[in-house]
Structure formats: C-alpha cells, structure tokens
Amino acid sequence: MGTPTWPTDEVLLDALASWLPGQRWYPAKDASGAGTAARVVSLLDLTDPESPALVRDALIRVPSSEGTVLVQVPLVVAEVTEDEAARDVPGAIAPLPGGAVLCDGPHHPAFLRAWTHLAVSQGTGAGLAPLDPSRCRVLRGEQSNTSVLIPRRDGAEPGPDGILKVFRVVSAGANPEIEVPVALVRTGWTHVPQPLGWVECTWFEDGADQQGHLGVVAAFVAGAHDGFELACFKAREGSSFADLAADLGRTVAQMHRALAEAFPPADERDGPTRAAALADALRARVAWAAGEVSALQEYLPAVEQVIAEVEALPDVPLDQRVHGDFHLGQCLHSDAGWFVLDFEGEPLRTLEARTRPDQPLRDLAGALRSVDYAAAVGNGTPEWAEEARRALQDAYVTEALAASDHPVNEATTDGVLERALLLERALYEAVYEARNRPDWLAIPLEAIRRELDTSARTGRST
After folding, report:
1. Residue 1 lies in a domain
2. The three-state (H, E, C) secondary structure of 56-84, written as one string
3. 86 and 164: one domain?
4. Long-range CB contact pairs, 401-408, < 8 A, 24+
5. What does pTM read for this prediction?
6. Is 2 among the domain residues?
7. Which end of the chain is less enclosed by CB atoms within 10 A, N or C?
8. How far, in whole angstroms, is CA 187 from its chain's centroid?
C-alpha cells in the first residue's frame, strides 16, 4: 500500500457527513444537510513525534437552527494492514481512497501524542511530562465534549493521571474551562482539579485572525464518585444525602468567595439599580424559555409576580464570576471532599454570555434543582429530597455568613431572589429537556409548579 495522503476538503466533508450527526457532542443535529453545507475553516497540522502518522485538527463551520457553530474534529489518517478491516481501527470514521481510514483523533494515540507535543511546544504543557498518551482511553457518557483518560508513564513519580477534555464547540476567546480553574488554583482553592496543560489555536475567519482554546488536561481525581450518580444511589437506597449535601453547600460558598478573589467584581451600581437590571434579565430569560416550550405559557403570570418582587428588592448581591451551570453532575466526591468541574457554563448560551458576571445564588439554585433530579431518577421520596435541599441551603448560608467578605453577605433578599433563580433554572431545564430528553420534561415542570405554589401559600404572590 502506498503512503497515506490527506483527503481534499470535499472528500473530508463527505466522509464526515453521516458521522457527525450521530455524535453526542454534535450541536447541529437539527440542521439538515450538515455534511454538504459545512465548510472547513482551518486545518491545524500536528506532529506525532513517535510516528509519521498524518494528524490534523479540523475546525469546521456547520449550520444550526440558531446560525452556525464552529466544531473541532481532530483527525488521523491511519494505514490499514491486510489483516484488519477499516472498522477495527480505533475511532474509525470512514475508509478513504487508497486503503487508509479516517479516524476520530481522541481515540487514536497518534493524536494524543501530537496534542501533548503541541502543548509543550506552546509552553502550556509543563505538567504533561509524566503522562503516557499512547495508553489513552476515551471516557463514555453524555457529554458536550470528549474526555480522554491519559495514565502516567511507567516509572513516573507518584501523582495524578490526566483527563484531556477536547472542546468540540470552539469560540474565539479564552475558554472558561481553562481560565477559571487556573485562576482558582492561584488563589489557593484546592477543590478544583489542577490544570496540567492546554492548547490554543489561531484561525482566519471573518477577515481577521481568531484565537481560542482547543482543549485542556486536568489532574484526574482518583477514587472519586460522580456527584449525581452518588446522589441517585443514596436516593435509591433510601440513605440520607444530608451530610454530603451540607458539605457541598459549604464547598459552593467557598467557591464563590474564591471566584470573587480571582475575578474581583467591578459593579458600581446601587442596590435598587442592580435589582431592576436583574429583573429585566430574568424577564428576558423567561420569555426565551416560554417561546421554546409552549407548556410554560400557563405559568407566565405567576412567574412575573415573583420577578416583580425581585425588582422591588432594596439590594441584591454584586454580579461576579460564577460557575454558570452548577449541578451535581459537575462535581466529584472523594475522600478529600467535593471537587467542582466544568466551568464552561450553560451549553445553550454563547461564550460571551457564559463568562459574563452573574448572581452567585444562581449556582446555589442549580445545586438545589439537581437534588430534585437525583430524587426523580433515583426514585427518592419527597422527604429525602427536602432533607437534602435544606441541608445544602443551610450549609451554604452558614458558610457565607461566617466570612465577612463573602459576596452574598450584604444581600437582604428574604428568599425572594433564591425563589426567582430556582424558577429561572427550572425554566431553562424545561427547554433543555424538551430539546434533548422529552421524557424528563415533567421534572422541571413539577418544580415550577411547586415553587409557584410555595410563593402563593406564603402570600408573596397572588
């Protein structure tokens, strides 16, 4: 067989046309003709120092119902021996003319070695030396990115393995999954996995050079359990989650304090002005959600009553950097406590919106809503969920009040703001479930009804 060659853009897009829509991370499943309408924006050449494999990182602009998005598809052109079929090659996408096969890079050691080599050459991969990219393993599960476990080399000094997260949707600008953990580690906060190395890329689009991040390797938290799976297990077994929830509440409060230190708030508006601006933002998000899911229309008058109470507050916390998409699935629990992951923010929002300063209590609302999801999936009782929610909320408030410089200390919201943010989070969840998991739509709808009923019974809304 001759030496493999890189396919033309036409051949490449044709090979990807039927493969892309089947990927969990692909954001344009609702757009027809993605293969033919897509265009290659950039092909970054990578070098595997241990083999002559053809490795390139493709940035491809694809259509979606909300415009276009830029997706990253790392690729390897691999030779196929006479004794193996193309489908047997790790990460095989499609056979190519000449007897080669096009492979999804994260599944192939040539890409992992080339990626690590590039990070080191860019000066951002100093922590990658102990890792062995040749023994990588792609992790399974529902993800908007692709995660790869990279173990340590034989004989390396004791330390953590690495987890490479390949960003499948790329935007110009600093990715918060790199920016935020790096900043938090610098403050001395130890409940975020240590970033070990990352890669950035420059591409030409819209008449100018654009720059953004392509992926990051963070330290693997050994012996850890996924927070959501752990909560579901507790609910299923009927075991209390209260102590773990309380520890999580304290961790979230500490995270907000560290974020305020790493990214000092610069909001100089007075309290009533901040409250009015927050109410306007809530109305915009509610209108967006109701436009996406018709079942939400009936709740709009009652939701507006709650937003009006937010607007009348004398003060709300300063907007600051927050997690942005906080839930139990973004956390790991080990003997060392809780670790917080995935600072990219809500996947349905733009990069600019996901990095904008926001209300810290929004993360608390996300954690409380996630307890409801664990109860629903794990068949936990309402009493199980209420105990866990109360423990989480009380621990967060106690930890916040214990620190004079905590960002929520000056707010006198009397529960109004938290209720509004819980409603907003449930409305966002309704949109997500309607798009991705219609069978789960009843979970956020029930939460909306419960929160509005609580408001009515306490006399806050009529």
Report:
1. no
2. EEEEEEEEECCEEEEEEEEEEEEECCCCC
3. yes
4. 403/253, 403/257, 405/257, 405/260, 406/253, 406/256, 406/257, 406/260, 407/256, 407/257, 407/260, 407/265, 407/317, 407/318, 407/320, 407/360, 408/256, 408/317, 408/360, 408/361
5. 0.89
6. no
7. C
8. 22
Residues 214 and 279 reside in one and the same domain? no
pLDDT tens for residues 318-335? 999 999 999 999 999 999
Distance, C-alpha 306 to centroid of its chain: 28
Whole-angstrom Cα distance, residue 241 to residue 374? 10
Instruction: Determine the structural domain holding residue 38 and report its residue range.
Output: 9-219
CATH of residue 414's domain is 3.90.1200.10
The neighbour count for residue 68, using CB atoms within 10 Å, is 14
The whole-angstrom separation of Cα 325 and Cα 394 is 21
Do 180 and 249 lie in one domain? The reply is: no
Last residue of a domain, one of 169, 184, 219: 219
Q: How far apart are CA 156 and CA 133, in angstroms?
A: 14
Close Cβ partners of 394 (under 8 Å, ≥ 6 residues apart): 246, 249
Render the burial of 381-391: b for 16+ CB within 10 Å, e for the rest.
eeebbebbbbb
In this structure, are 288 and 380 located in the same domain? yes
Q: Are residues 250 and 322 in the same domain?
A: yes
Q: Which of 219, 254, 289 is the last residue of a domain?
A: 219
pLDDT tens track for 102-153: 999 999 999 999 999 999 999 999 999 999 999 999 998 767 899 999 999 9
Write the pLDDT tens digit of every residue in 208-260: 999 999 999 999 999 999 999 999 999 999 999 999 999 999 999 999 999 99
**Number of independent structural domains in the chain:** 2
178: in domain: yes
Amino acid at 175: N
In Å, the largest CA–CA distance within the chain is: 78
Task: List for the chain the helix, strand, coil content (%; round to 5).
Answer: 45, 20, 35
Verify that 205 and 327 share a domain, yes or no: no
Same domain, 144 and 164: yes
